[in-house]
Design goal:
295 residues; four-stranded mixed β-sheet
Length: 295
Amino acid sequence: MTLKSMTGFARAIGESEAYSWVWEMRSVNGKGLDMRFRLPQGFEAIEVQARNLAQKTLHRGNVQIAFQPQQKQLQQSVSINEKLVDELLVASRELQKKIGGELPAIADLLSIKGVVEAVEVDSLVLPDDEVNQMLSSFQEVLDNLVEARSHEGSEIGKVLLAQVTKIEAILEKIEKDPSRELEAIRANLSSQVERLVAESEGFDEQRLHQEAAILATKADIQEELDRLKVHVGSARKLLSGGEEPVGRKLDFLAQEFNRECNTICSKSNSASVTALGLDMKLVIDQFREQLQNME
């Protein structure tokens, strides 16, 4: 499966015997899937079916969908202006009394301007074949939007993968940092124990061992490093495109990255490890920022 972003734009033009139309879809990032349609009155049935189609493909994002139909030839009906006909007949009879002659025939009356009026009828009852063609065109614009989101998602995925690689590289540097070597740990622990003894008169040996054990435990970051390795592996698997959508899962991993990194920085009694932890935190923040646009 392909990684997808939540940003995209697509447009599709279609026509049938009676209508021409334009579909437009715009998508930006969002916590869930929010689709808003703008269709003329009378096309509610198309909106319902189009929404069902989109929900099968889209999982997240704020999506604006516009449908602009144009009827090629409006239906017309004929209306007789009966009031005008009555007035014409009255006038004709008055003239007949004065000057004689025949009353106007029906054909003559109908030929007078204003007697017969063509009234446009905007029919909102769409035949099934019209609806199907409009929905087929909607599927086209939906496919185009998915393609646009997939292209951008693929590019963002490359950036995210590079950032995961950076996190992994910093992780390896922390593991290999000289301050984590056994002799360095012993020397640091010995120095801290000496300070404890110097600052406390009558410090008993048992208490000394307890404090030393506490200091050693607090400084141990191996558990956090191990968990970071697992998270790195999980992120790589998600970014491989094996499943979708991955945005929420990657966001959860980013939070776990951040938590383990913060713990490493707080536990560390080495300036070099702390500096590496801060470098990692910067990359994690960049990772989370990029994720905001992933489906």
